Amino acid sequence: MFDFDQYLGFLAFLTILTIGFWLMIFLLTFVIPYWVGGSIVEMLKEKNEERKAKKAAKNA
Which keywords describe this protein according to UniProt (predicted)? Predict the structure, then answer.
């Protein structure tokens, strides 16, 4: 059915495919939400600082 070289190639293909699958799952479940959440927090901090600066300029 398979020669030994074909068997090793098939195993290498399955290994690379499996590593790619789990890496994609890891990125979609942990890295991307962390990145988006951090961006939202930074945006809110910038808006808050902008409000404080306007309020300080208005009172001065």
Answer: Membrane, Transmembrane, Transmembrane helix
Q: What is the pLDDT of residues 15-25, one digit of tens each?
A: 999 999 999 99
Whole-number Å distance between alpha carbons of 47 and 22? 37
> Would the CA dihedral through 46, 47, 52, 53 be positive or negative?
positive
pLDDT of residue 58: 85
Phi, psi of 55 (to 5 degrees): -70, -40
28 within 8 A of 35, measured Cβ to Cβ: no
pTM of the model: 0.64
Q: Return d(Cα 56, Cα 42) in angstroms, integer.
A: 21
